[in-house]
Amino acid sequence: MADCMQEWPEPVVRVQALAESGLSVIPRCYVKPPCDRPAVAPAAAAVQAQLEKDQPSDIISIPVVDLGELLLAEDGGAVGVGGGLGNDVTEAVAAACREWGFFQVVNHGVRPELMRAAREAWRGFFRRPLAEKQRYANSPRTYEGYGSRLGVQKGAVLDWGDYFFLYLAPEAAKSQAKFWPANPSNCKEVSEEYGREVVRLCELLMRVLSVSLGLDEAHFQRAFGGADCGATLRANYYPRCPQPDLTLGLSAHSDPGALTVLLADEHVRGLQVRRGDGEWVTVQPVRDAFIVNVGDQVQILSNSMYKSVEHRVVVNAEEERISLALFYNPKGDVPVAPAPELVTAGNLPALYPPMTFDKYRLYVRNKGARGKAQIEALKGQASSPEN
Ligand code: OGA
Ligand code: NI
């Protein structure tokens, strides 16, 4: 596949600036084809309290996994995940991965104050004057900085959201100082600390995933590059939208990496997950939880025993929404393929040819969010002679 373009194919418009201009009709480039539009606009925070009592059936609290005991046991020096202590947790995670590809974690070891501080730091950034934010305008070369589109296809239908993207790990790949916002003044420090803690959580979840598939607990981490796994952070900002039923904050996609840990807005819903029956359901985050979902690399490594699941973001007319997504990714140059231990009698053949994450992520960087098209295409290559 050709390398990403060096620059965006069209002038970049900040969705936040559009929203704040007070327009009542959204520009045509944000209008999705009818089949991609949300069925109903999600309820805004103003009516949320009322809904809580009589919640519509399309608003769902996806499985909640409590990591408290496991973390306690490990801190006390007991064998946690690999020993008997993690049984309940691994079973809960396995069930959630099979049924949803999504779950929430509570008592996950990341301090709620740090979560709030990180979210507020990024809220603070998006509240800075436009001219200041523009200093961090990103390009499709690395995506680092302030962005308003994914993909470089000219004339693509765009999403109703802006974002800020950074590399956190490994150290050698970390975004240089110039890419980090100077304001709020604690943004870099808080994000780095937040990143370190969430990466630790990802490492724990990697062990839980390995054990839940009957592998030794270090298997996933090893297969994804050991201590040199990558982590990136995307702060998503979805402004209010005068016509929320015509567009999406983020189009349907599965995440290309291994694992995503999402800190959702504490007041405003917006994340929707495609359930097994094809219906889109809105996720109701529980307090102080993270929303975790497995990405395409886990689907590849597990030979599709765990599948990455499509999700998208809907916007609303009353409230802006913010979320922080930490993407835990394989080291860029390690070929990832189905684990031989999992390509067994009941699960043949190996569905995916080996591919590095550096190569895999070029697709989304070129084409933007396209449901599960990429991993489906990779599957098609598994049996072709050149592989
Ligand atoms: C993402 C994502 C969901 C959200 O950034 O990949 O799916 O709620 N975000 O912002
Ligand atoms: Ni996502």
From TrEMBL:
Cite the entry's keywords alphabetically.
Answer: Iron, Jasmonic acid signaling pathway, Metal-binding, Oxidoreductase, Plant defense
Q: Where is the Fe2OG dioxygenase domain?
A: 229-330
Protein origin, superkingdom: Eukaryota
Per the UniProt record, the source organism is Miscanthus lutarioriparius
Listed under GO biological process in this entry are: defense response; negative regulation of defense response to insect; regulation of defense response to fungus; regulation of jasmonic acid mediated signaling pathway
PROSITE patterns linked: FE2OG_OXY (PS51471)
- Catalytic activity annotated for this protein? jasmonate + 2-oxoglutarate + O2 = (1R,2R)-12-hydroxyjasmonate + succinate + CO2
Q: What is this protein called?
A: Fe2OG dioxygenase domain-containing protein
Give the UniProt family note.
Belongs to the iron/ascorbate-dependent oxidoreductase family.
